[in-house]
């Protein structure tokens, strides 16, 4: 989601979600209801229409002035991004997005023409990723627009890739460079003349990594997986905590795009901050067995999808550490946008 600032998460939204939901429904009840995986990953997994498949369900919400600003996003961009964020959650499980439900709460400032442009963006994204928009809800709102989207996808039964599969000895990878969306937001907010079209589009029209997720699932390569929605640091911590392992990232292996490097240089910015903490790039961060690396590189190259090995998984208490360019080691903070900061 579009960030207006970054903060260390003393009690982050995931901790609050656990405090609100943990233990509320017995595991036996959830299992009888057909729930394979509930709260705590990119998407829930429930029993599908046949023994061969399961359903993936993901929901995301965009709130005006929290997740997007009129100064940085056009109406169609808001619609496009609202759906693409959910498509990315399905991609992060190795699934195929199929259906969407869209709920909008519309304030007086959003007239019929503005809402039509928003839906133009929604349907443009839906067409690109083969998603059928099949319903939702419409209400009024007093001040800001709220767009909530639920996407339903499919995945082969028992094959969804989770955050919890990382094991010592595996390598850590990204399916694309990060920091571009944060660079785009920074440039749009500051009306920077040097802002490239690629950075602008990375922020306004992100591209979920559906094909990359499918390659990882179809070949059994993805041991653990997350989409980079809240930043590499945040997503790496989620994998480390879910899997009970230590992730060692290497600064010299992190992919820095030429456009971000140029923009950062022109504006006196350290690109590493955007790359680790920016978020909303919707590339995939994951781990895989080292014996699969060469095959993965060949297949991803054949499909025109980047693949960057950026570190490795080690045994130890859950944490994320960075080996810097100088060879020193420093902790990577569990840092990112926090909807519920203290104070």
From TrEMBL:
Give residues annotated as binding ATP.
Answer: 119, 136-137, 163, 229
Q: Where is the PurM-like N-terminal domain?
A: 40-155
Q: What is its EC number?
A: 2.7.4.16
In its UniProt record, a GO molecular function of this protein is: thiamine-phosphate kinase activity
Quote the catalytic activity from the record: thiamine phosphate + ATP = thiamine diphosphate + ADP
> Sorted alphabetically, which CDD domains does this protein's record hold?
ThiL
Binding of Mg(2+) 1, residues? 60, 137
- Describe the family membership recorded for this protein in Swiss-Prot or TrEMBL: Belongs to the thiamine-monophosphate kinase family.
- Protein name, UniProt field: Thiamine-monophosphate kinase
Originating organism: Cohnella luojiensis
Protein's gene: thiL
